[in-house]
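Allow me, if you will, to draw on your knowledge of protein folds for a short while. Thank you for your consideration; the sequence and its tokens are set out here:
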Amino acid sequence: FVDKGMFYVRIRFGRNELETIDKMILIYDTGQKREYSKTNDR
């Protein structure tokens, strides 16, 4: 299961793979990458 979204998320959260997958699924589920980026723009 390798998609563009996964790549994008993996680059941002490469340390925590578990959290990465969780967040990636959340992004795919909601389909709002922009909001996700805004929320995680620390």
